[in-house]
Design brief:
By secondary structure, the chain is mainly α. The protein is 61% helix and 8% strand.
């Protein structure tokens, strides 16, 4: 068993997959101050184009919202508790460097892709008429593509990806019987907004501490903040009696894609992006300004945003606001502009 786990976690297995996809690591030699050194590694794709990257040393981000928040928090915490490193470069080509200081197991991308795809698949039949086999094929295809992309980018081992999928499958299996109860509590309980805001904030502050700075705490706070904001927005919509239920007897047929619906969808997308990006920029600037003032931190400080007392409340406030605007305010804008 241990040999099998070691094999699945082997960096060479990931590098072999990358090479089959046409991605190779090229080590160039150069001299610096008269001393011959290993050169900066580069990788090339099938087109032969040369792209520069660096080798980084591994130091010692409704039901689907519930599921996504749950599996992402579990995955992020497991990373920092188990502390299994990401694939090594060389031999692996690293196409992403921002999260190199994070640990690898499990792959939260694999967890999220599996959780979202199959939560939608299992929830949709009660509301939308569609061929389940087609939906299953789409869910499997989407989650598989995300899993393979984590290998292609060199960010996870095969073991990381497999564990991510299995953990999500276990969470879905355990929570599935309670989805309707979760939804009823979220939409109708008078304490739902308080639970939605307080619990994620506590989880963000009590996130496991590391010996070095990692983006996992900030990313986890972002995810929890968005989920909290969306939950509050859904609750507000329910209290106002505007939950945007499909017209007709459920499950309803899939609507036909026409030029009109495509134009409306594009308009809603653009309005939504503008509103959410604007909300993020304004709330982030205001929250950081207030926190810097409260803790008497110079605005020129480059490392202040890594401190827990700054990072957690700033990200939580920012992305909770984004979640509320997404689930509540943007819908009101759609109504005013006649885009519904």
């Amino acid at each position: 068993m241990l040999e099998a786990l070691a094999y699945l976690h082997d960096s060479e297995l990931v590098a072999g997959f990358q090479r089959r996809c046409g991605l190779f690591l090229v080590e160039a030699a150069h001299r610096t101050r008269g001393v011959a050194r290993a050169g900066t590694p580069n990788h090339i794709d099938q087109s032969g184009g040369l792209q520069k990257t660096t080798w980084s040393h591994q130091d010692s981000n409704c039901n689907y919202k519930y599921e996504e928040n749950l599996v992402m928090y579990i995955g992020q915490v497991m990373k920092d508790v188990l502390k299994l490193p990401r694939p090594l470069s060389p031999p692996v080509v690293k196409l992403e460097t921002r999260v190199d200081a994070e640990y690898g197991l499990p792959s939260t991308h694999a967890m999220a892709a599996t959780a979202i795809s199959f939560t939608l698949l299992l929830s949709a039949p009660s509301r939308i008429q569609f061929q389940f086999e087609v939906g299953l094929l789409m869910a499997v295809t989407l989650s598989t593509m995300v899993c393979l992309s984590r290998l292609y980018t060199g960010m996870h081992s095969v073991l990381d990806v497999i564990c991510g999928v299995l953990i999500s499958a276990l969470v879905l299996y355990v929570t599935y019987p309670f989805w309707e109860s979760f939804e009823q509590f979220q939409l109708t309980s008078s304490i739902s907004p308080m639970v939605a805001l307080v619990l994620p904030l506590i989880l963000s502050y009590t996130y496991p501490e590391l010996e070095h700075y990692s983006t996992t705490r900030g990313d986890t706070t972002t995810i929890l903040g968005v989920g909290a904001g969306c939950s509050v927005g859904y609750w507000i919509n329910k209290q106002l009696g505007e939950t945007f239920e499909p017209k007709g007897v459920l499950p309803v047929p899939l609507p036909t894609l026409t030029t009109h619906t495509l134009v409306l969808g594009t308009a809603r997308f653009l309005v939504g992006v503008f509103a959410l990006v604007g909300t993020r920029q304004v709330t982030k600037a205001v929250s950081l300004h207030l926190l810097y003032w409260w803790y008497n931190i110079p605005k020129s400080s480059k490392c202040a945003t890594r401190r827990k007392e700054i990072e957690v409340p700033s990200k939580f406030a920012t992305y909770t606001s984004v979640g509320i605007v997404h689930s509540f305010l943007v819908n009101r804008i759609f109504l005013l502009l006649g885009l519904v």
